[in-house]
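Lab channel / #folding
Pinned by the channel admin:
"Please post every new chain as: sequence first, then the structure tokens as a reply. Keep commentary short and put observations after the output so the thread stays searchable."

First post following the new format, from NK:
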Amino acid sequence: MHYVYLIRSESNPDQLYTGLTDNLRQRLTEHNAGKSIHTAKHRPWTLETYLAFSNAQQARDFESYLKTASGIAFARKRLRSPV
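Reply from TO:
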């Protein structure tokens, strides 16, 4: 499976990160270990939500969409929990 995920910083709850992986547990561990330059300074992270895709291209396309202005608005309304 291919996962598109949103994580929220515990230290700065306004910070969200959207990513793509085929191993969700390992990737969250990597984010919390500081192995991603994009998320290291806002550790620790908690999983906000994820969606599983059997098709890798669909997962990549959805991740790309969530990083657009309309995708961010969609995620705010439909995928995120209140802060």
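NK: Strands lie at 2-9, 16-21, 45-53.
TO: also worth noting, The first strand starts at residue 2 and ends at 9.
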